[in-house]
């Protein structure tokens, strides 16, 4: 599959991005079910790293958004990732925003999406995880339903946290998607602190109930100034959050101005996000001073890009848009590039 992807990519890019997504997953799922994907999988040398009390087989993970309903874990597990993050999942099913809602900016090797947390709901998500019997490390990315006001957002996050707790290696709190109205307002200092306090209280209760504590991670936006990043860092440390993901997609368009689809609303990912997300990683690392680990995500298209994130202060990295443009061979390239770190 690694060698075949460049041949199939023009065919996939000839159809709507969401349709291409489904075609690719159908092929990967079929290959995994037949055992072909496992036979074709690259044998990567284990390069373990410990973070958040977890032993990760390697530093390279799948970012949330590609497998929103945890339907494709078995297939994705054959690609060489050290961990997978599924979601974003919400308490109740929701269809997301009207189509079309995903756009390729091929010249920039970028995507714009305004999917809007389209997912089948937390109960279906958990059923899919149980059916998959996935034995690797699984992060679960949780969010609020679009019709839940921010004043009650914590209730949605806590409902999801309760239902995934025993199945997750870590849980990510998504407060940074630009595609759910008002969601990013939860990053404001007062709202953010109140949300973290509620979540940590529930986390303590769940840890006692299940006999194990699941690390809590927060995913933040790239469109934050240094003062906001420093405020977030202080709150993450104060509330003993276990990790932070930097970053989600950007609402900025300066890097793709004038290109086809550049004016579509939604979050921009891919190569144009690389410098912006790395700058946030660097600022976070300075503000946190080693207090908690950072997962760097945004614009990783090569082993050199992966090293850049680690050099900026990340402990782990995640892939999404680079995987779509470069194919599954990118996973091994990044794992090997970070093997000496």
Describe this structure in words.
This protein is α/β, with parallel strands linked by helices and 341 residues long. It is 39% helix and 16% strand. The chain has one domain (5-337): TIM Barrel. The strands form three sheets. Strands 3-4-7-8-9-10-12-13 form an eight-stranded parallel beta barrel, surrounded by four helices. A three-stranded antiparallel beta sheet has the order 5-6-11, with no helix packed on it. Helix 8 (226-238) links the parallel strand 9 (216-220) and strand 10 (243-246). Helix 8 crosses helix 9 (274-288). The chain is globular and about 50 Å long. The two termini are 27 Å apart.
Fill in the keyword field for this structure.
eight-stranded parallel β-barrel; alpha/beta; TIM Barrel; globular; about 40% helix
* Helix content range: 25-40%
The largest sheet, given as strand count, sense and whether it forms a barrel, is: 8 strands, parallel, barrel
| Strand segment count | 13
Category by helix and strand content: alpha/beta
**CATH fold descriptor:** TIM Barrel
CATH class descriptor name: Alpha Beta
Strand composition percent:
15-25%
Q: Taking Cα atoms only, what radius of gyration do you get, to the nearest Å?
A: 18 Å
Rounded mean pLDDT score:
94
Order of strands in the sheet with most strands: 3-4-7-8-9-10-12-13
Shape: globular
Provide the number of structural domains: 1
What is the count of DSSP helices, taking H or I runs of 4+ residues?
Answer: 12
Write the layout of secondary structure elements.
Layout lengths: L4 H8 L4 H18 L1 H5 L8 E3 L2 E3 L3 E3 L10 H4 L6 E7 L12 E4 L4 E4 L8 H11 L5 E5 L10 H12 L5 E5 L14 H22 L5 E5 L5 H13 L4 E4 L20 E4 L3 H15 L5 E4 L5 H10 L3 E4 L1 H6 L2 H9 L4
Parallel strand pairs: 3-4, 3-13, 4-7, 7-8, 8-9, 9-10, 10-12, 12-13
Antiparallel strand pairs: 1-2, 5-6, 6-11
């Amino acid at each position: 599959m690694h060698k075949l992807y460049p041949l199939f990519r023009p065919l996939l890019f000839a159809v709507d991005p969401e349709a291409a997504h489904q075609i690719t997953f159908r092929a990967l799922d079929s290959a995994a079910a037949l055992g072909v994907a496992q036979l074709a999988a690259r044998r990567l040398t284990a390069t373990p790293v410990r973070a958040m009390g977890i032993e990760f087989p390697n530093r390279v993970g799948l970012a949330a958004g590609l497998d929103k309903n945890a339907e494709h874990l078995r297939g994705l597990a054959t690609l060489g990732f050290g961990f997978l993050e599924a979601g974003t999942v919400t308490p109740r099913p929701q269809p997301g925003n009207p189509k079309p809602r995903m756009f390729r900016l091929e010249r920039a090797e970028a995507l714009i999406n305004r999917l809007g947390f389209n997912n089948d709901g937390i109960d279906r998500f958990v059923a899919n995880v149980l059916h998959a019997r996935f034995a690797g490390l699984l992060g679960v990315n949780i969010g609020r339903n679009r019709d839940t006001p921010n004043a009650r957002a914590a209730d949605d996050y806590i409902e999801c946290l309760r239902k995934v707790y025993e199945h997750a290696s870590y849980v990510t709190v998504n407060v940074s998607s630009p595609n759910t109205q008002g969601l990013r307002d939860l990053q404001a200092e007062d709202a953010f602190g109140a949300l973290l306090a509620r979540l940590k209280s529930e986390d303590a209760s769940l840890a006692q109930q299940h006999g194990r504590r699941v690390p809590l991670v927060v995913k933040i936006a790239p469109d934050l100034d240094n003062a906001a990043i420093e405020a977030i860092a202080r709150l993450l440390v104060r509330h003993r959050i276990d990790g932070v993901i930097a970053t989600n997609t950007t609402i900025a368009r300066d890097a793709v101005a004038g290109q086809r689809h550049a004016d579509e609303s939604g979050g921009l990912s891919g190569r144009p996000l690389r410098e912006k997300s790395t700058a946030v990683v660097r600022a976070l690392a300075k503000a946190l001073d080693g207090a908690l680990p950072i997962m760097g995500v945004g614009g990783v298209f090569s082993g050199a890009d992966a090293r850049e994130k680690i050099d900026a202060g990340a402990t782990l990295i995640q892939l999404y848009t680079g995987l779509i443009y470069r194919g599954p061979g990118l996973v091994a390239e990044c794992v090997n590039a970070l093997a000496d770190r």
